[in-house]
Write a sequence for this structure.
């Protein structure tokens, strides 16, 4: 239920891969296992709307490409760290994708849709992890409150946006602008 598995705090990616496929999401951060239930349809509709906006914004770009989970991202000791952000943007190198699985340093933006089973994982654990590892921007979409929280660095206290959010890919001429109200209305109608 989104809580770390306290019986064993030295999980590896190989151990994770040996688990049976039970439709839950398994992530490990520094050897600690986090298990969350399969996302709800509302969660998927919200993450899908963000992906569509990013896809349209970056279409034809040689800057970056958006992805959505399940897709692996690793950091540091790649044997003890594997996360699956809901939606993220991968920086292209010379117009090409970096080697998969991506490293956190390959990402320009991460968007998580708040997990009702364990908001601490998104707001505390993952936020610290992503921003400390140099991801330039991190958003958490809260479908219940219909707001997006945004951080742009480790020391950024963050902001909560309910009207509009924008993001500019490095080197892009114009920013992507999302009407937050309209996004949630479309996703959750």
């Amino acid at each position: 239920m989104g809580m770390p598995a306290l019986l064993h705090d030295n999980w590896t990616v190989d151990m994770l891969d040996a688990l049976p496929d039970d439709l839950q999401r398994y992530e490990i951060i520094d050897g600690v296992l986090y298990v969350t239930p399969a996302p709800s349809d509302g969660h998927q509709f919200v993450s899908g709307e963000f992906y569509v906006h990013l896809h349209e914004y970056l279409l034809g770009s040689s800057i970056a490409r958006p992805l959505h989970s399940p897709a692996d991202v690793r950091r540091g000791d790649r044997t003890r760290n594997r996360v699956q952000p809901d939606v993220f943007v991968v920086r292209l190198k010379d117009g090409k994708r970096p080697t998969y699985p991506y490293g956190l340093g390959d990402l320009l933006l991460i968007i998580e849709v708040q997990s009702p089973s364990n908001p601490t994982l998104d707001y505390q654990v993952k936020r610290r992890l992503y921003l400390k590892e140099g991801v330039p921007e991190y958003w958490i979409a809260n479908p219940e409150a219909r707001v997006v929280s945004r951080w742009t660095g480790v020391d950024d206290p963050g902001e909560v946006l309910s009207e509009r959010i924008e993001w500019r890919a490095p080197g892009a001429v114009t920013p992507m602008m999302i009407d937050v109200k309209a996004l949630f209305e479309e996703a959750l109608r």
Remarks:
- The CA atoms of residues 151 and 157 lie 7 Å apart.
- Confidence is low (pLDDT under 50) at residues 1-6.
- Helices lie at 13-18, 41-58, 119-132, 180-188.
